[in-house]
Design brief:
The protein has 163 residues and is α+β, with helices and mostly antiparallel strands. The protein has helices at 2-21, 33-41, 90-94, and strands spanning 45-53, 56-57, 65-71, 76-82, 98-105, 110-117, 123-128, 136-143, 154-162. It contains three helices and nine strands. It has an eight-stranded antiparallel barrel with strand order 1-3-4-5-6-7-8-9. It starts with a helix and ends with a strand.
Length: 163
Amino acid sequence: MKRFTQLLTALVICSLVVFVSCKKKKKDEDPDPRDEFGTVLDGGSWTPSSVTFDGSNRTEWEGFVLGWTYNTETNAGTYSTSGVPTDDGAADVWGSGVVAWSFGGSEETPDISTIIRSTDGLQMSVTPDNVEAPTQLVITFSNAPESRVEGFEGNWSFTLVKQ
């Protein structure tokens, strides 16, 4: 009987060790807010409903189109423009061709309200009307005199609607 008690005690201890060492599966991590917002922007085309420069309405941006791409692997993307006004310096406001961008913040604390243009480090504030399914974006940025946007130094605000 003594042997049976020892065997039963050893079996209980082994069972407890196995049970305690089993790890629970981690819950799926919270989704990356960059991926959520970036994916919504990806493939979308946006046109201005209003544009202001230093508080003054600008009508020459009618016909402007901003197209976004986003890559979940790199947490960054590109944008391209068309319909840029032919005024001197206007092409420099958004850059020309395909322009790379990334979200602000850090890997640990991403900031989806800031987009950083890779070509010159210009930070743009992005305010969507709805993060999950935006139909309107307000993008504001300032060009300092030392920026590459000569003649357009000041504060820009583009209110864009999804096409």
